[in-house]
Amino acid sequence: MNRDTFFATAKKHSVEEQAKIIWELRQPAIQIDLTKVASDDEVPVGASKFGGLPDLPPGTDYPYHYEQALVFVCQLNCADLKRFDGINLLPETGLLSFFFNDYIYRDEGWYDTTNWRVWYFEDVVELQRLEVSPAIEVYDVARTSFEVKQTIPQLWSYIPDSLRPKMDRETEDMYLEFEYEILPDKNDHCMYGHPNEVQGGLFAETELFAQGGSYSLPQVMEQRLLDTWRLLLQVDSVYDLDMIWGDAGRLYYCIREDDLKARAFDRAVCTAQGS
After folding, report:
1. What pLDDT score does 240 carry?
2. At what angle do helices 169-182 and 3-12 cross, to 10 degrees?
3. Position 94 confidence tier, pLDDT thresholds 50, 70, 90
4. What is the number of alpha carbons within 13 Å of residue 176 lying toward its C-beta?
5. Whole-angstrom Cα distance, residue 121 to residue 127?
6. Can you tell me the mean pLDDT for 236-258?
7. How many CA atoms lie within 13 A of 211 on its CB side?
């Protein structure tokens, strides 16, 4: 979103004053756009892509959740991302690979950390494309392109203290209508920035997953969690690739700031939200 569109839409919904506060909380993100291709052969080994088969170092075992093979979601070459990295925390080279248990909606072990993987391979020269296996579900393939975009926090996830005095019930309803119009409702794939949440409370949910528990956290903790966790990757449902998360939902791979700086990508946590 650009500034002019943001404030023109806010004026349309009579929430200019509230929008000024939210705009100051914006964060840059790396938008990921997809172009479907006919096969994996059209994407070089080690290149960024969604779907298809992953490129792995020789001898790497494919990730499983017990007996269930995870699905390969995407791989992102850090060299492709670096010039769009506004917070300068990604490695300059290497490959990030993301996996998920697509059967999790039928499982009870949601909080089991084997339901997802985030792998970082520093050396991309020796990577090899995995061979087709009947045990592994494979999505259709898409090339990627990248650009910088601005993201805003969502009102239903948390309300900044500076905004509370300016939000009565009627104004909140108008602001939610503005937010609904300004935020993408599909194909919203990105790294970093504020998450585009389907249900709200993402970082509280992420903290629960990290702790392996199913109890609830006080809503007041959400602001502290915003300072602890960072969105690493958001993956929307992609109908063109048959990549659909539950009820047309989104995946959110989140990572603690300290782990991101340490390149401890294996400590990332994945949650999913659907409508």
Report:
1. 93
2. 140
3. very high
4. 13
5. 9
6. 92
7. 11
Task: State the pairing for strand pair 269-273/250-256.
Answer: antiparallel
CA 210, 211, 217, 219 torsion: positive or negative? negative
Nearest Cα neighbor of 189 from 5, 2, 35, 19 is: 35
DSSP result, 116-181: EEEEEES--TT-EEPPP-TTS----EEEEEEEEEEE---TTT---TTTGGG--HHHHHHHHHHHHH
The end-to-end CA distance of the chain, in Å, is 23
Q: Is 258 helix (H, G, I), strand (E, B) or coil?
A: helix
Distance set, CA 55 to CA 97, 144, 222 (Å): 8, 16, 37
Strand partners, 77: 95
Look at residue 203 and tell me whether its pLDDT is greater than 80. yes
Rounded to whole angstroms, the Cα distance separating 27 from 234 reads: 14
Alpha carbon 123 to its chain centroid, in Å, reads: 24
* Residue in the block written with tokens 């017990």: 66
Pairing of strands 55-56, 189-191: unpaired
**Helix, strand, coil proportions of the chain in percent (round to 5)?**
30, 30, 45
For residue 238, give both structure tokens.
């992609």
> What pLDDT, on a 0 to 100 scale, did the predictor assign at position 106?
47
User: Which strands form 71-77's sheet, in the order they lie side by side?
Assistant: 116-121, 95-100, 71-77, 49-50, 141-151, 27-37, 189-191, 229-236, 250-256, 269-273
CA distance 144 to 270: 21
Tokens of 53: 């088969």
How many helices (H) and strands (E) would you count in the chain? 7, 14
Instruction: Look at residue 99 and tell me whether its pLDDT is greater than 80.
Output: yes
Q: What distance in Å separates the CA atoms of residue 207 and residue 203, rounded to the nearest whole number?
A: 6
